[in-house]
Design a protein that fits this description.
- By secondary structure, this protein is of the alpha/beta class.
- It has one domain: Alpha-Beta Barrel (TIM Barrel), CATH 3.20.20.
- The protein is about 35% helix and about 30% strand.
- It contains eleven helices and twelve strands.
- The protein has an eight-stranded parallel barrel with strand order 1-4-5-6-7-10-11-12, surrounded by eight helices.
- It is globular.
- The termini are close together.
């Protein structure tokens, strides 16, 4: 199982939000590229990048910070936030992003996801951000009437590389993961799932490993890594252990 350290970008800084609220942002670094290098040096094999401003504005905003990160590290990175067109997807893939995450676009324009998957096999992930089981979009500012599982099933045969499932109520709140909800999603679709939201400790990672859901291939952690609650070496060793 892959552990993805999260670098959430707001106004060029590395921050963490509480439940997606831009007004409740904690700045952890003024130099996201340096933070990315630290994660690489700690042994992480992937990065999870989010353009928070872009998610709200519907267009890339923190492109300069993302480009600095890509120039600084050699490990692959996945990026989401404000990516709403084939041209934007292509630009980011050409710039060195390994996998593009489509969230709002997946709900508003599912044909875009299907076309992108055909054009760039293995390069497209779908962000499924849920609040009380329903999909939230536009930087989580709007909650739709579509259930998270129903959105995921729309792309069952599209060739999506992964679903990134976030329980918004848990994100940044340090209250533990929604392991059961994540497992239910992973067991209901044939698309690999990356868990997100609420990782606070090694116990959360252990619970995710032990739940009967082989479709869960990774987990994203942010605040717990930044504030020291999750030790990178211990977490990486735990998830690499086959037991």
């Amino acid at each position: 199982m892959i552990l993805f350290p999260a670098i959430d970008l707001k106004d060029g800084q590395c921050v963490r939000l509480v439940q997606g609220d831009m007004a409740r942002a904690t700045v952890f670094s003024d130099t996201p590229a340096a933070q990315a290098r630290t994660f690489e040096d700690q042994g992480f094999e992937w990065l999870h990048l989010v353009d928070l401003n872009g998610a709200f504005e519907g267009k890339p905003v923190n492109a300069a910070a993302v480009e600095d990160i890509l120039k600084t590290v050699s490990i692959p990175a996945q990026l989401g936030g404000g990516i709403r067109s084939l041209a934007q997807i292509e630009a980011w893939l050409d710039n060195g992003i390994t996998r593009v995450i489509l969230g709002t676009a997946a709900l508003r324009d599912p044909a875009l996801v299907i076309e992108a998957c055909k054009k760039w096999p293995g390069k497209i992930a779908v962000g499924v951000d849920a609040k009380d089981g329903y999909v939230a979009v536009e930087g989580w500012a709007e909650v739709s009437d579509i259930k998270a599982l129903d959105l995921a099933k729309r792309f069952e045969d599209a060739g999506v590389a992964a679903l990134i499932y976030t329980d918004i109520a848990r994100d940044g709140a340090m209250q533990g993961m929604n392991v059961e909800g994540t497992a239910q999603l992973a067991n209901s679709v044939g698309i690999p799932v990356i868990a997100s939201g609420g990782v606070t400790s090694l116990e959360d990672l252990t619970a995710l490993k032990q739940v009967n859901a082989p479709g869960i291939i990774g987990v994203i952690s942010g605040r717990a890594l930044y504030d020291g609650r999750l030790d990178p070496a211990q977490a990486l060793a735990l998830l690499k252990d086959a037991a």
